[in-house]
Structures are given as structure tokens and as C-alpha cells.
Amino acid sequence: MAFELPALPYAHAALAERGMSQETLELHHDKHHQAYVTALNGFVEKNAALAGKSLEEIIAFANSKAELAAVFNNAGQHWNHIHFWNALSPKGGALPGKLEAKIVGDLGSVEAFKEQFKTAATSQFGSGWAWLVLGSDGKLKVTKTANGSNPLATGEGKPLLGLDVWEHSYYVDFRNRRPDYVSNFLDKLANYEFAEANLS
Q1: Domain 21-86 is of which CATH architecture?
Q2: How many other C-beta atoms are found inside a 10 Å radius of the C-beta of residue 189?
Q3: Is the pLDDT of residue 9 over 90?
Q4: At what angle do helices 69-86 and 34-46 cross, to 10 degrees?
Q5: CA separation (Å) from 157 to 28, 125, 139, 144?
Q6: Who wins on pLDDT, 1 or 156?
Q7: Angle formed by the axes of helices 110-123 and 97-107, to 10°?
Q8: Domains of the chain: which residue ranges?
């Protein structure tokens, strides 16, 4: 069964007042994400070893195999973007109590979390992602991954909230100002209720 591009959980224009334009979502979701899905389906059609595997199984199978790098990148980007659309909200930016308490307990304060997340997102050279994850020790931590990788592949923990820092995710709205894009995400767009649901 072929992988499909999931519909956005909100209208293309729903995030415009919070800093992510309709044009960005039309390009990013409808074009970029669709391209990853199309490419992944092409690889699955040509490789019997991938047939019938879930997205997560393909990521694990292709991880660290040089000959399957393109498969890994497209599968990873498909998974990352499914997560990313849910990590955004027209009512984003407000931290629910359980997650806020966990952040304060593990990372010191909400401000400290945002600083760590912003540092990870802005210091990721080139394309990649910043993540809030639940580590195997039960503690929250902030991490980053390059290109199409994610914490499922690196083993750094369970992804709770991820931010795309590829240029196509912010260039229409923020040009080359990645730090402003990251701050806007944390303060106005981040779906912390989604992150809290992932926590449990």
C-alpha cells in the first residue's frame, strides 16, 4: 500500500496571523512534503525488502545503510513532516500544566527550555531539525538532527515536539532570519498540547 500525504490539521491560511503564511504552507506541505512521499513510494516499488514495512520500520531498516541513504532521507522526511504539521497550531504557544511542570523539573525553567531549543535550531548547520525529546532516562532534553534524520533514528529519545529548520520552512516569511522563525515558533505556533500528548 502506497504512502500518502496527510491533509493538514488546519486550513492553509490558519497560521498566517501567527507568522506562517498560506504561501509557505502551500509550498511546504503541498509541494515539498508531497515530493518526499512520491520519492519514497518510488523506492518501495523498486525494492522488495521495503514492501509491506511501516514508515518507522523503513527508517530503522534504511538507517546507516549507505546504499539506502535516499530511502532513509525520504522516509525520515515523511515522518518528520507528519510530526511537524501536528506540532503547529493556530492556537499555539501556550504551555499546558503537565508539560510545563515537566519542563521546569527537567530543564530548569520554560525560559531555559526555549533558550536550549533556540540554540539547537539555530546552530544546526545547513538543513535539519530541532527536537524536544523524552530520553530513555525519563528526562526531557533538547536535541537536533541533520537533514532527514530524527530521534527515532539516532536513539536519542521519543520525539515530543520537532521544528523544521530547512530554509524552505521559513524563507518566504522570515527570509534568512532563522532565529526569528524559531522564536516565533516557540511563542506563537508550537502545539504544546501535542507535545504533552506525546509525553504520555
Answers
A1: Orthogonal Bundle (1.10)
A2: 20
A3: yes
A4: 140
A5: 26, 21, 9, 11
A6: 156
A7: 80
A8: 21-86, 97-199
Q: In what order do the strands lie in the sheet with 140-146?
A: 140-146, 128-134, 158-164
pLDDT at 88 over 90: yes
Q: Is the per-residue pLDDT at 1 higher than 90?
A: no
Query: From CA 109, how far away is CA 116, in angstroms rounded?
Result: 11
| CA distances to 70, 72, 154 from 114, in Å | 32, 29, 22
Q: pTM to 2 decimals?
A: 0.98
Q: Greatest CA span in the chain, whole angstroms?
A: 49
Assess whether pLDDT exceeds 90 at residue 67. yes
Q: What is the residue type of 183?
A: S
98-140 tens-digit pLDDT: 999 999 999 999 999 999 999 999 999 999 999 999 999 999 9
Sign of CA dihedral 196, 198, 199, 200: positive
Q: What is the CATH number of domain 97-199?
A: 3.55.40.20
Instruction: Provide the grid cell at 80.
Output: 518528520
